[in-house]
Amino acid sequence: MTKLSEVLKLGDPKLYEISEPVVQGDLKGLEKIVKELNDILMEFRSTYGAGRAIAAPQMGVMKRFIYINITRPVVLINPELFDFSRERIELWDDCMCFPNLLVRVRRHKRCKLKFLNQDWQEKIWEMEDDLSELLQHEVDHLDGILAIQRAIDNKSFAWK
Predict the structure, then answer these.
(1) CA–CA dist 112, 128 (Å, integer)
(2) What is the mean pLDDT of residues 10-30?
(3) Is 106 exposed, middle or buried (0-12, 13-18, 19+ CB in 10 A)?
(4) For the chain, how long is the longest CA-to-CA vector?
(5) What is d(CA 137, CA 80) in angstroms, rounded to the nearest whole number?
(6) CATH number of 3-159
(7) Which is nearest to 44 in space by CA: 76, 3, 94, 1?
(8) Strand order across the beta sheet in which 110-116 lies
């Protein structure tokens, strides 16, 4: 059995649940989950040639944290998006929960993200373009929202 089999697939009711905040006492238990998220992300990259981040609820862990690995691994605990630009971008979004489906969505071109790191220190990122759309997608997972729910219209779906 591969790690990818641990990713919840489209239709699983857990994907539509709102995740609970991480409390400081949860930190020790996160280490094992972060390793599993990394393993899943690396296997997804190897299999599909894509994958930059994964939210804990995608593997059934209903806590508000995201594992991202673009140039280096980063754990985003209790992330909150704010200060959205009015300007939007359109893109074909994909997801580990439906790896062969693309969904045309609109996301904010720029936004800010407040989160805690693994040392429980607050950080703020200013993001735009690819990183902005990626983190909007991942934070949506924490709120039980999938890209299919953000589709521009009923013709905004395509197979890879």
Answers:
(1) 9
(2) 94
(3) middle
(4) 45
(5) 12
(6) 3.90.45.10
(7) 3
(8) 53-55, 65-69, 73-82, 110-116, 122-128
Rounded Cα distance between 18 and 4, Å, is: 22
Model pLDDT for residues 21-80, shown as the tens digit of each residue: 999 999 888 899 999 999 999 999 999 888 999 999 999 999 999 999 999 999 999 999
> Which amino acid, residue 152?
I
Bridge partners (DSSP) listed for residue 51? none
| pTM of this structure | 0.95
Rounded distance between C-alpha atoms, residue 7 and residue 158, angstroms: 21
Hey, what are 114's tokens? 């407040």
CA dist 105 and 156 (Å) reads 8
Closest CA to 96 of 152, 16, 40: 40
Q: In this predicted model, which residue has the larger pLDDT, 140 or 160?
A: 140
**For position 66, what pLDDT does the model report?**
97
Active site (annotated) includes residue 138: yes
30-64 per-residue burial string, b: 16 or more CB within 10 A, e: under 16? beebbebbbebbebbeeeeeebbbbbbbbbebebb
Report the C-alpha gap between 133 and 97 in whole angstroms. 17
DSSP class per residue in 76-92 = EEEEEEE---S-EEEEE
